[in-house]
């Protein structure tokens, strides 16, 4: 759970600064093989290459139309300035002629001239052009976002589908060696991170690069000198950004660490709140929470504050550049080297100049984190899969349940052999009990039987057919399991019972429930068989959960049953009833019973006593007691303990 939560909190790639700017404060995770993972991600984008090309050109067009706007507004400003200058000159000439005592006829001629006026038709044309540019820019931007959203979601859909199919092909050892939170984090958080970057950051990156190039070109066409002044401020902006980012990154790391600790502490305390209360550790738990929360608060506000001051500092640096541009531009206007509209247009371009630089740097940070997320997903996709089923796999149409282990050798690691030479022969209808201390190999034997793990040597056969020659689905359909740890999903009780047999009728479901002695308590529930079980089936007791799993096994009607202390979670009276039901269920079937309480397996046809992966004793209950060996010691210790209690 902690791994999952920490993965949740570490996938952020950037933060928005004041005024919509970007602050480069968040630490980016780095991929071990950046080029390889990037190439592989691009491979998933290849089917969408036509749409990506369209997105690329639409983004360019949207940016170009947006870039042209200041230039067009500058032309309008120049026209207004010219018309106003002409009008001012007209009245100035008349006034000067009058004050200078010019000939009245000359003055009359001056007054007879058309009075210069502002060409509003031209201005309106400029306004319409601007509206057209902004509308086109918005439409292209909308189309870019729409198409890119489809590209991103289809790409993530394909990756998620591949991951889901991969999980179905992975062996059990992968799930045994990775936490559920870690696997879920790759499927959810990492893929969401990839999707968000594809949908937003790629378009922003294209826009930022085109904007930077386009603005630079437009600035050069207006004034190379002013462009040089604008560029001079860039090193200072870079120094400010890098220096602040270094400080904020350390604080963000501290914040993420504290957040992971806090989430882990909360999960532990609330999942085990009964134990905390029983031992009176509430105050200790609260004090621990307060201490972590204090560190999280301290690191959090410092990180956000320092990353948040990047934009104000950049604005300060940029304003210095604006002042220089205005002063030099004003001088050029006075010297008639530039028009005032061009200066105003240049100022707007200068304001657009620094934003794409900061945005590009931030996106680079996000992409770094995204490739790291993609790499984790690709690592899952590269995991070793189960050995594929045989193309010409055999089938057992009517399984009888004869099972044989012949010279089976197995170890979870190649250099650490757990089972060295196992030989077992079980006939149909026999009940085989497997006992032994923790780590003896009881569960391993069942895992091998169902091909959750592959044996290293020897063979396991069912009705004379090697299980490696069967398809895994066909093999596992022969088994029914009732485990100590119950598993029920979110749905009705009816759906949970019929999980192993989807075509079961209502009568069969009720019949199985009665055989498992579950029908009575089900009917006492408000909705009966339509009662919805919540996510953890916490609205029924542990014993009732076990009864439902037994009913599910009874309904599935398997050829081979695997029982892992199926009655350990029920009371004594219910256990007695279930033992009778299980006895009826086990008739005519091969049964493997993993037993912890030896009193429940006295009637087993054969008891296998395992220790360190080997079968050290085997026989009936009475035979093993008479041997006075490992089993007898184990049984007597339990019997003595129970008597003492």
From TrEMBL:
Residue intervals passing through the bilayer: 50-68, 122-149, 205-222, 228-245, 316-335
GO cellular component, one term: plasma membrane
Ranges of Gly residues composition bias in the record: 14-23
Annotated organism of origin: Anaerovirgula multivorans
Keywords: ATP-binding, Membrane, Nucleotide-binding, Transmembrane, Transmembrane helix, Transport
UniProt region (Disordered), positions on chain: 1-26
Membrane association type: Multi-pass membrane protein
ABC transmembrane type-1 domain mapped to chain residues: 53-369
Gene3D superfamilies attached to this UniProt entry: ABC transporter type 1, transmembrane domain (1.20.1560.10), P-loop containing nucleotide triphosphate hydrolases (3.40.50.300)
A molecular function GO annotation: ATP binding
Cellular compartments annotated: Cell membrane
Domain ABC transporter: 403-637
Name of the molecule in the record: ATP-binding cassette, subfamily B
Matching Pfam families: ABC_membrane (PF00664), ABC_tran (PF00005)
Major site of localization recorded for this protein: membrane
């Amino acid at each position: 759970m902690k791994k999952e939560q920490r993965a949740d909190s570490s996938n952020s790639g950037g933060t928005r600064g004041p005024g919509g700017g970007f602050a480069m404060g968040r630490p980016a995770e780095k991929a071990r093989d950046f080029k390889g993972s990037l190439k592989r991600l691009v491979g998933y984008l290849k089917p969408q290459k036509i749409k990506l090309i369209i997105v690329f050109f639409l983004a360019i067009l949207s940016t170009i139309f947006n870039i042209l706007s200041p230039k067009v507004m500058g032309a309008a400003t120049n026209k207004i300035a010219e018309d106003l200058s002409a009008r001012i000159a007209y009245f100035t000439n008349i006034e000067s002629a009058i004050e200078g005592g010019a000939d009245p006829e000359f003055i009359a001629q001056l007054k007879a001239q058309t009075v210069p006026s502002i060409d509003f038709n031209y201005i309106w044309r400029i306004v319409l052009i601007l509206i057209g540019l902004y509308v086109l820019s918005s439409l292209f931007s909308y189309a870019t976002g729409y198409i890119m959203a489809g590209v991103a979601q289809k790409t993530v859909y394909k990756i998620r589908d591949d991951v889901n199919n991969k999980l179905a092909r992975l062996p059990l050892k992968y799930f045994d060696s990775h936490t559920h939170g870690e696997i879920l984090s790759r499927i959810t958080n990492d893929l969401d991170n990839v999707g968000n970057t594809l949908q937003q950051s790629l378009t922003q990156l294209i826009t930022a690069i085109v904007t930077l190039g386009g603005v630079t070109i437009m600035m050069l066409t207006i004034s190379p000198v002013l462009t040089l002044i604008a560029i001079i401020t860039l090193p200072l902006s870079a120094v400010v950004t890098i220096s602040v980012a270094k400080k904020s990154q350390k604080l963000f790391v501290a914040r993420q660490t504290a957040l992971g600790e806090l989430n882990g502490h909360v999960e532990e305390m609330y999942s085990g709140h009964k134990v905390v209360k029983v031992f009176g550790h509430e105050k200790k738990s609260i004090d621990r929470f307060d201490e972590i929360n204090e560190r999280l608060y301290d690191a959090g506000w410092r990180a956000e504050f320092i990353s948040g001051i990047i934009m104000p500092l950049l604005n300060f640096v940029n304003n210095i550049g604006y002042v220089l541009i205005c002063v030099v531009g004003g001088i050029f206007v006075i010297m008639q080297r530039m028009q005032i509209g061009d200066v105003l247009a240049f100022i707007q371009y200068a304001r657009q100049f620094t934003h794409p630089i900061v945005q590009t740097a931030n996106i680079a940070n996000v992409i770094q984190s995204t490739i790291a997320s993609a790499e984790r997903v690709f690592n899952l996709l590269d995991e070793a899969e189960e050995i594929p089923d045989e193309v010409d796999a055999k089938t057992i149409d009517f399984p009888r349940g004869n099972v044989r282990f012949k010279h089976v050798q197995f170890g979870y690691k190649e250099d650490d052999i757990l089972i060295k030479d196992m030989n077992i022969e079980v006939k149909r209808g026999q009940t085989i009990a497997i006992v032994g201390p923790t780590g003896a190999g009881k569960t391993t034997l069942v895992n091998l039987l169902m091909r959750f793990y592959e044996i290293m040597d020897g063979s396991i056969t069912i009705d004379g057919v090697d299980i490696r020659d069967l398809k895994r689905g066909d093999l596992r359909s022969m088994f029914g399991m009732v485990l100590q740890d119950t598993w029920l999903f979110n749905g009705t009780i009816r759906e949970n019972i019929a999980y192993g047999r989807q075509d079961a009728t209502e009568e069969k479901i009720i019949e199985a429930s009665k055989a498992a002695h579950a029908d009575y308590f089900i009917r006492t529930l408000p909705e009966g068989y339509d009662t919805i079980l919540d996510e953890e089936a916490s609205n029924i007791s542990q014993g009732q959960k076990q009864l439902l799993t037994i009913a599910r096994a009874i309904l599935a009607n398997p050829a081979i049953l695997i029982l892992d202390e199926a009655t350990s979670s029920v009371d004594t009276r219910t256990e007695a009833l279930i033992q009778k039901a299980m006895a009826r269920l086990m008739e005519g079937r091969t049964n493997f019973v993993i037993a912890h309480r030896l009193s429940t397996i006295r009637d087993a046809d054969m008891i296998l006593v395992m220790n360190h992966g080997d079968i050290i004793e085997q026989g009936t209950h009475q035979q093993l007691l008479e041997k006075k060996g490992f089993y007898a010691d184990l049984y007597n210790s339990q019997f003595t303990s129970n008597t003492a209690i």
